[in-house]
């Protein structure tokens, strides 16, 4: 069996929550947010692996931990067998040449004070230009850097590249900005790209194009994706395998497998409900529609995680009132 | 049917150094009291401009024509002071990003006190707080949140607080501009179901502005589809989704990804520039069903079918 590209073993990421002085005296110590509470999964080379869950379930924390923006509390992250769980400064630099992140909000990912050409050039100056041999060399001249950026823009469909080089982020549409972000990421020739809600902030009409674009890039550059989203429908379409997360844990992985007790995890059912909305299939009266039963309350508190899922109308079955 | 809002020939043009940008063109729209009207379209189609035009929240370079009748009065003919009185009281608006709409330096209770006293300066803080607690209960936010700062609350909770602030004066119409785009799908459902439940109690109508067709399909009574500043199609939700008539609406519905999607589709091409005058149908370059008349003659809205759908298309 070939070694997986990425392996995550029993990853835990806990954040301390500052509590007031008196509370600490009485309660003893800080409370901890169990953002990621023992997650294990692996991703094979060339795969698209999805992590799906509602906000607060820990998926973005996993993304940040993989690229070193957040430190793991315990557990292991292995990249091609190499332990990259808690890299030092130099190690971090190298991790980021192999694992890159595309964010949800392309506006926030780009500096408003730099042209998009400069944003990509900056990365190439810091890390060097990729060579055919797979290593990197520092550019001899600015002209060389600019040419490399033009090549990248051409690759991501921003044509003509010279036109886009001098644009500022606010002069571009959401889809164009996301392409710049993708280009900046590709400049490093990463092997694994973590895409955190890459289309959530784009119009429905543009999403299809962006998803196709991401899949094209994957094919052309032999990439592997960790695709993070709350939209089960999109995940189902683009991912080879999906892990569903809830409260810091993966509650269902490899969607072909069902939980051993035969029932579907509530979280999965909830996400499926939301992914099935369009179009209405039966004629319904306005506002007397058979609404999907209300998911039980706001997302639960990740500090004091209940031992058992809270009692819920839905647990009693769809027909119960 | 009582109409809470009637837009007639509403146009909004932004004056720019390059010329006039026609963000909204000749829009007629009627919202029945107590109903949800969904207004959908891509980014840049004019839906947000329309929402803000109703409340006269547009920048100085925006020129508005036509009429906006609310409770029998034309809002465009009112003075700035009169509009300020109405705004936040009888007509309220919530926006996309609850993170940036609340003052990070003020506790939640001070948001309520400030809003109440902006319209009723005589009210005592204690009474204002009582009113705050009532609306918070309606949006299912525990009153212990009143002492907190916005950053201590989740996105979903902040959006509920925004809604509560709007409810204080029992508005007849709430304009919600992408209220759930920044929230995940579960929260989205909760917020919309919450809005539905309070609409009945407050006898409030909602104009739901969004690019999310699924949301509109599930919650709106009627839907208006906007393209390039104009209404392309409008009608009751269920018939419109079951049988969309305008080619743009058909294209939009095809591009939605749901669990049954097997192939990705997007409407080819880009929306047109809104700068300067245009002739013919704005959707002409991208339309699969275009005819020669579409290039030169603008299709006025016509009523089609049993459900009296409004469609701006020469096919009918």
What about the largest sheet of chain A?
6 strands, mixed
Question: Which stretches of chain A of 5+ consecutive residues score pLDDT under 50?
Answer: 255-263, 277-321
* Gyration radius of chain B, rounded: 20 Å
Number of helices of chain B: 11
Class by SSE composition of chain B = alpha/beta
Biggest interface between chains: A-B, 44 and 45 residues
- Tell me the series of helices and strands of chain A, N- to C-terminal: EHEEHEEHEHHEEHHHEHEHEEH
Alpha carbon gap, first and last residue of chain B: 27 Å
**Rg of chain A, alpha carbons:** 22 Å
The helix/strand series of chain B, from N terminus to C terminus, equals: EEEHEEHEHHHHEHEHEEHHHEE
Tell me the total number of β-strands of chain B: 12
Beginning-to-end CA distance, first to last residue of chain A: 50 Å
Helix content of chain B: 25-40%
Question: So what's the overall shape of chain A?
Answer: globular
Care to describe what's here?
The complex is a heterodimer of chains A (321) and B (316). Helix content of chain A is 33%, strand content 21%. Chain A has 11 helices and 12 strands. Chain A is globular. The model of chain A is unreliable at 255-263 and 277-321 (pLDDT under 50). Chain B is α/β, with parallel strands linked by helices and 316 residues long. Chain B is 33% helix and 25% strand. Chain B has helices at 47-54, 80-86, 98-101, 108-119, 125-138, 155-167, 185-202, 213-219, 237-242, 247-255, 292-296, and strands at residues 3-16, 19-32, 36-40, 62-70, 73-74, 91-94, 173-177, 205-210, 222-227, 230-236, 302-304, 309-311. Chain B has an 8-stranded mixed β-sheet with strand order 6-7-8-3-9-10-12-11, sandwiched between helices. A 4-stranded antiparallel β-sheet of chain B has the order 2-1-4-5, covered by helices on one side. In chain B, a hairpin with a 2-residue loop joins strand 4 and strand 5 (73-74). Chain B starts with a strand and ends in a 5-residue tail after the last strand. The mean pLDDT of chain B is 90. Chain A binds chain B through residues 54-56, 173-174, 201, 203-209, 211-212, 230-234, 236-237, 270-280, 283-284, 286-287, 289, 291-292, 294-295, 298-299, and chain B through 35-36, 42-43, 154-157, 181, 183-190, 193, 196, 211-215, 217-218, 221, 236-238, 241-242, 251-253, 255-259, 261, 264-267.
């Amino acid at each position: 069996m070939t070694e997986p590209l990425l392996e995550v073993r029993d990853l835990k990421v806990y954040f301390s929550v500052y509590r007031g002085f008196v509370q600490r005296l009485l309660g003893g110590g800080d409370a901890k947010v169990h953002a990621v509470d023992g997650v294990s999964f692996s991703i094979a080379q060339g795969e698209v692996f999805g992590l799906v869950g509602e906000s607060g379930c820990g998926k973005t924390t996993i993304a940040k931990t993989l690229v070193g923006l957040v430190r793991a509390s315990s557990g292991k992250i292995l990249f091609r067998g190499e332990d990259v769980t808690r890299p030092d400064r130099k190690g971090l630099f190298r991790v980021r040449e192999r694992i890159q992140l595309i964010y949800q909000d392309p506006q926030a990912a780009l500096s408003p004070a730099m042209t998009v050409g400069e944003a990509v050039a900056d990365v190439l100056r810091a890390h060097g230009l990729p060579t055919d041999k797979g290593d990197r060399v520092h550019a001899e001249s600015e002209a060389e850097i600019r040419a490399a950026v033009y090549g990248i823009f051409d690759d991501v469909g921003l044509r003509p590249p010279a036109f886009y080089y001098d644009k500022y982020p606010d002069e571009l549409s959401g889809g164009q900005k996301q392409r710049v972000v993708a280009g900046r990421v590709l400049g490093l020739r990463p092997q694994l790209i973590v895409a955190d809600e890459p289309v959530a902030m784009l119009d429905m009409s543009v999403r299809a194009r962006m998803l196709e674009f991401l899949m094209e890039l994957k094919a052309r550059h032999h990439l592997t994706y960790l695709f993070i989203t709350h939209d089960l429908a999109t995940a189902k379409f683009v991912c080879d395998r999906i892990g569903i997360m809830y409260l810091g844990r993966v509650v269902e992985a490899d969607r072909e497998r069902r939980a051993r007790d035969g029932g579907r995890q509530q979280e999965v059912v909830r996400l499926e409900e939301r992914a099935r909305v369009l179009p209405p299939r039966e004629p319904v009266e306005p506002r007397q529609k058979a609404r999907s039963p209300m998911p039980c309350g706001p997302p639960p508190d990740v500090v004091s995680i209940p031992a058992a899922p809270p009692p819920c109308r839905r647990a009693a079955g769809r027909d119960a009132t | 049917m009582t109409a809470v809002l009637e837009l007639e020939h509403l146009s909004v043009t932004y004056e720019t150094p390059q010329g006039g940008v026609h963000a909204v063109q000749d829009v007629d729209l009627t919202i029945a009291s107590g109903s949800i009207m969904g207004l959908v379209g891509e980014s840049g189609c004019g839906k947000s401009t329309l929402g803000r035009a109703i409340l006269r929240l547009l920048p100085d370079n925006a020129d508005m024509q036509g009429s906006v009748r609310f409770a029998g009065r034309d809002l465009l003919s009112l003075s700035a002071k009169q509009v300020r009185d109405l705004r936040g009281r009888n007509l309220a608006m919530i926006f996309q990003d609850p993170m940036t709409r609340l003052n990070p330096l003020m506790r939640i209770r001070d948001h309520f006190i400030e809003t109440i006293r902006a319209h009723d300066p005589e009210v005592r803080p204690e009474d204002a707080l009582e009113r705050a607690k009532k609306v918070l209960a309606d949006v299912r936010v525990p009153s212990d949140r009143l002492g907190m700062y916005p950053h201590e609350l989740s996105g979903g909770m902040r959006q509920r607080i925004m809604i509560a602030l709007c409810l204080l004066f029992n508005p007849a119409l709430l304009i919600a501009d992408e209220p759930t785009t920044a929230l995940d799908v579960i929260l989205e459902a909760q917020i919309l179901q919450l809005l539905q439940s309070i609409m009945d109690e407050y006898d409030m109508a909602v104009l739901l502005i969004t690019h999310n067709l699924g949301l509109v399909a599930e919650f709106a009574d009627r839907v208006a589809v906007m393209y390039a500043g104009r209404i392309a199609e409008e009608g009751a939700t269920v018939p419109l989704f079951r049988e969309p008539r305008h080619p743009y609406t058909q294209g939009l519905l095809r591009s939605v990804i749901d669990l049954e999607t097997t192939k990705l589709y997007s409407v080819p091409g880009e929306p047109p520039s809104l700068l300067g005058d245009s002739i013919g149908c704005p959707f002409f370059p991208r339309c699969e069903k275009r005819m020669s008349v579409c290039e030169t003659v603008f299709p006025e809205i016509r009523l089609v079918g049993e459900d009296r759908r409004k469609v701006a298309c020469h096919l009918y």
